[in-house]
Write a structure and sequence with these properties.
10 helices, single chain, Trna Endonuclease, Chain: A, domain 1, five-stranded mixed sheet, alpha/beta, two-stranded antiparallel ribbon, about 10% strand
């Protein structure tokens, strides 16, 4: 590559190489001309052929000069085309760069938006986890409190009584039961339900043989399970006997009582593995109930109470029905009289309408001066004076 001013010559280009060779030839010819001129001084005779040769050489030089000019124009055109190509390429590159930058900006914006949403969702999840953790801690405290309650026999009895009170108060009307009612033998019942005779008031007493049940659940082997199951049956039998002796009083209470177990698990274990204990309760007229079966039993009692109260009020109901029948008869009598009055009023209205129509016709005749038709027979008609 050779730089001449603002023009760059490429020696690998044939046109450039031809131009250089032409220039070198021109220089050589000029040297020859100078040599010929010097020789012309020495020989005038040899000048004419040389002049002819110089004329030819001048034409060749002129043609070479024109070719060089065309070559320079071609180089300029190539340079301009290359400049335009470079400008177009730069424009395309700039546009592509702008598009890439725009795409990257949108991508970054979308990524930041999604990241913000993800962080917000994560924050909500963390808040939910914190709330769940707080609830778990509270539940753990409640469980520990329940364990403390159940570990104490007196507190465990209070727990069963509270659960029984909630079930009874939710199933029966307030005047259908009494809490901690004292019987004639001085014993205090957890709940006394006022059923009508028969069967009469019935006692519900809460019992919770938790130690025997936990021993059964924690028994390490079959022999320990057998012993724990026997202990559980004995504990329930003791409760059945105590309820039968304390809360079944002839002439005062119903011929039976209910033993409330505040645990569905203990109730299911008794019926599944100790059915003889349940039958012993039937024999002693003590029926064992769980929270679920107690609610069903109380609903049945409520239906019995409602039926008994309906029977007690049957006299009042019949009296009210008789009064209602008499009221209906009075309404019928009054309706008959009203019908007569309405019929009479209708006749009177019809007479008034007829009289009104007749009066209207007479008024129309008077308005048309039809006195001849209105005059009675034999009466003299006075003619009107003519104007």
């Amino acid at each position: 590559m050779i730089q001449i001013g603002e023009t760059t010559l490429d020696l690998s280009d044939p046109l450039t190489l031809a131009s250089i060779l032409g220039a070198a030839t021109l220089i050589l010819l000029l040297l020859l001309v100078l040599s010929a001129l010097r020789a012309a001084k020495r020989s005038a005779h040899a000048m004419e052929p040389l002049a002819h040769h110089m004329a030819t050489l001048g034409q060749n030089v002129q043609a070479l000069s024109q070719g060089q000019e065309r070559l320079a124009g071609g180089l300029s055109s190539v340079s301009e085309h290359q400049a335009r190509a470079q400008a177009s390429m730069m424009e395309v590159m700039e546009r592509r760069l702008e598009e890439v930058q725009k795409g990257m900006s949108e991508t970054l914006h979308g990524t930041s938006t999604r990241t913000a949403r993800s962080l917000g969702a994560l924050q909500q999840k963390l808040e939910q986890i914190d709330k769940a953790q707080a609830n778990i801690e509270k539940l753990s405290g409640d469980v520990l409190g329940l364990q403390d309650i159940l570990s104490n026999k007196q507190r465990r009895g209070m727990f069963g009584e509270i659960q029984l009170n909630d079930i009874v108060s939710g199933a029966l009307p307030p005047d259908a039961y009494a809490f901690q009612s004292t019987l004639s033998n001085g014993k205090r019942a957890d709940v006394l339900v006022h059923l009508p005779n028969p069967p009469g008031p019935i006692v519900i007493d809460a019992k919770f043989p938790l130690e025997a049940y936990e021993a059964l659940m924690n028994a390490p082997d079959r022999d320990a399970q057998t012993r724990a199951l026997r202990d559980l049956g004995n504990a329930v039998r003791i409760h059945i006997k105590a309820i039968s002796e304390k809360y079944i009083i002839e002439g005062e209470t119903a011929d039976g009582a209910l033993m409330f177990l505040p645990s569905e698990a203990v109730y299911a274990e008794l019926h599944a593995r100790l059915p003889e204990v349940v039958r012993a309760g039937f024999d002693a007229r003590v029926w064992i109930v769980s929270p679920t079966t107690c609610m069903a039993t109380l609903n049945t009692m409520r239906a019995v109470m409602k039926d008994a109260r309906m029977r007690e009020q049957s006299g009042e109901i019949r009296k009210a029905l008789r009064q209602l029948h008499r009221d209906v008869e009075l309404v019928g009598e009054r309706a008959g009289k009203l019908e007569v009055h309405l019929r009479q009023a209708s006749d009177d209205v019809a007479g008034i309408v007829t009289a009104s129509a007749r009066a209207g016709k007479r008024a129309e005749r008077l308005d048309n001066f039809d006195f001849e038709e209105l005059a009675p027979d034999g009466a003299e008609i006075v003619p009107l004076p003519k104007r």
